[in-house]
Amino acid sequence: MQRSINKANTPSIETSRIAQPIGSTLDRFIKSNQDQFAYASGELSQLLRDIALASKVVNREVNKAGLIDIMGAVGSQNMAGDDQQKLDVLANIRFTRALAKGGEVCALVSEEADTFADLNNEGKYVIAIDPLDGSSNIDVNVSIGTIFSIYRRKSPAGTPIQQEDILQRGADQVAAGYVLYGSSTMMVYTTGHGVNGFTYEPTLGEYFLSHPDMRMPADGKVYSINEGSANSFAQPVKEYVQYCKDQKYTARYIGSLVADFHRNMLKGGIYIYPATAKDPNGKLRLIYECNALAFVAEQAGGKATNGSMRILDIVPESLHQRTAFYVGSKNMVDKSGSFA
Ligand code: FDP
Description:
Helices cover 28% and strands 24% of the residues. It is of the alpha+beta class. It has an eight-stranded mixed sheet, with helices on both faces. The protein has a five-stranded mixed sheet with strand order 12-11-13-17-15, with helices on both faces. The chain has a two-stranded antiparallel sheet with strand order 1-2. The termini are far apart. 2,6-di-O-phosphono-beta-D-fructofuranose (FDP) is lined by residues 82, 133-136, 226, 255-257, 283-284, 289. Residues 82, 133-136, 226, 255-257, 283-284, 289 line the site of 2,6-di-O-phosphono-beta-D-fructofuranose. Pfam families: FBPase, FBPase_C.
């Protein structure tokens, strides 16, 4: 006798409660969205995968940092004049190696090096990276991050790298994002079609899509600024900070750009690193810090300025150029600009 199959009683693999679905891996997501790229040849996809791979290695080092002797300063200073922490150096090596092996990148600008590194001259992409941002937090087990910014090179592949390849406006980025080494590790990136966030699952060694199509709330109640420097803020900044207090906003300043940015991205808020008497051009770096986060912010519906001008419209004049930085919820950034 032939048995009939009752489809209604057959448990679906997709909806089974025995094993909850765990969502798309970063790899699969990148692949399935590859057609959105202006140059859909697969190289940008590979580059993003290289970044993800290096970040997993850095994540491992960050997590065991307290256990072995890789914490503390290495004894030299980077171009920005900061003491180089060992993990900064290590992260720089990890990212540079992964990107060099991948072969898609012709030139790499890093916070940790005075000039750009030539990688594969046939590569079509330029990358600017802060391998480990928030270095003063490394020794105290506070969240730190990696920031990356990717451009298409302007000169033909195989020819010497030109200034125009390196010093591009943020608006020319083809992709950008960050990795947050926090209570969990996340990679958040955009290729100009919205922002997606992936959480790292350490036992599987994979990033999974956890925050699809991230949107930054248009308003918020958190302001992040180092008020210890308030005496050297310009008058409009002082007034805006007072405005935040009058509004009974909450002050939250981790002092780790990626972490402060990420919190504001999820909950709404504004991060400000203004020009100060000590740092008349601000402290943060345009090419490998602000541009990437400005691109992510705009893609999520937020805004980023230097107090008056859109960050992404600034034409950089030098690799380690600084800028004042106001980033976060659109209405809050607009309001801060109205005090200028
Ligand atoms: P750090 O010097 O620790 O690397 O990018 C530089 C940065 O950290 C940001 O991550 C952070 O928001 C800011 O500087 C903190 O600077 P202050 O200590 O001057 O507030």
